[in-house]
Amino acid sequence: GLPEVPVRPVAERRESRRIQVGSVAVGGGAPVSVQSMTTTRTSDIGATLQQIAELTASGCQIVRVACPTQDDADALATIARKSQIPVIADIHFQPKYVFAAIEAGCAAVRVNPGNIKQFDDKVKEIARAAKDHGTPIRIGVNAGSLDRRLFQKYGRATPEALVESALWEASLFEEHDFRDLKISVKHNDPVVMIEAYRQLAARCDYPLHLGVTEAGPAFQGTIKSAVAFGALLSEGIGDTIRVSLSAPPAEEVKVGIQILESLNLRARRLEIVSCPSCGRAQVDVYRLADEVTAGLEGMEVPLRVAVMGCVVNGPGEAREADLGVASGNGKGQIFVKGEVIKTVPESKIVETLIEEAMKIAEQMEQDGVAS
Ligand code: SF4
């Protein structure tokens, strides 16, 4: 299950209606969920299911698969049935794939009715099929594929243009009394994206899917997403998030989870409080922090481990943490719950910390603290 939300989230959440994406509730106060998208050919069922399994293991809660061809559409039923997490089919233009995805039991469909209307107006039939199957739809407005009419009106993909587009798309479903929607208004510029979501949040009560589109390679994309999601989530805006990186999708999930943990929107798991090191450092802090991180990877309990390079801030931080080391003079003082339990030589710091962390984790698990 989802980790329980800790006592002090960053902000009151915006009130939104709730939709149900398979087993995962989105909006209406449900925990903010993390999603990603596969990079395999969807028609390659084996490879796609394999990647979904990896994403599931990394903590992904909802997965989206692209559906550009009939072969992809044909693969959806098996993928939706065998995936452990809800599968959303991502469809552009072709209504027949939308019907196929709904029939296939996909947990949701991402489609923009504006596209559909333009080529083959089946919006009414889609609304009916989605309603019959209880399949929600995400309207995904994207700066890169903004309606030409709005481009002309606004000159470029401004926040106003994105919002107008999204609300117009939603109205095409509302006309058919279909409101089982969530919306995204993505842009590659966090400043535009933040403003677009703010405006959209004020003008509707649909749950919102946050995304910075084409955010870039891992480093830049991580920062853009963290900045943009951080701004919005700290105003209570956002119900599900997708970090887009030009990197393997499991990386997106890691970043997404870390963003939610940083904002207390999700119980923190392992947290390493390590100092940047400076001229006072008496041990190799980078190496220590890396080795401790690696040694404790996958730990599910909310453990805070301090790794400090010297005795200036060291003992203070180490005391605040569940466990920590403050180094000095080639030695490390190991703290557990604020008490120095032993002093070990530098070469023994990592193994001692890991050993003690395991003990604390075991105790936490027995006490039922684990998520
Ligand atoms: Fe420098 Fe010590 Fe602070 Fe680390 S803990 S940054 S070594 S003063």
UniProtKB/TrEMBL annotation:
- List the EC numbers from the record: 1.17.7.3
As for family, the record states: Belongs to the IspG family.
Q: Where does [4Fe-4S] cluster bind?
A: C275, C278, C310, E317
Please give the cofactor(s) recorded in the UniProt entry for this protein: [4Fe-4S] cluster
According to UniProt, the reaction catalysed is: (2E)-4-hydroxy-3-methylbut-2-enyl diphosphate + oxidized [flavodoxin] + H2O + 2 H(+) = 2-C-methyl-D-erythritol 2,4-cyclic diphosphate + reduced [flavodoxin]
Please state what the protein is called.
Answer: 4-hydroxy-3-methylbut-2-en-1-yl diphosphate synthase (flavodoxin)
Q: Which residues form the IspG C-terminal domain?
A: 271-357
Pathway the protein contributes to: Isoprenoid biosynthesis; isopentenyl diphosphate biosynthesis via DXP pathway; isopentenyl diphosphate from 1-deoxy-D-xylulose 5-phosphate: step 5/6
**Kind of enzyme, top EC level?**
oxidoreductase
Q: Which domain of life does this protein belong to?
A: Bacteria
Please name the InterPro entries in this protein's record: Dihydropteroate_synth-like_sf, IspG_bac, IspG_bac-typ, IspG_C, IspG_TIM, NO2/SO3_Rdtase_4Fe4S_sf
Q: Which residues form the IspG TIM-barrel domain?
A: 17-256
Gene (name only): ispG
Cofactor binding, note field = Binds 1 [4Fe-4S] cluster.
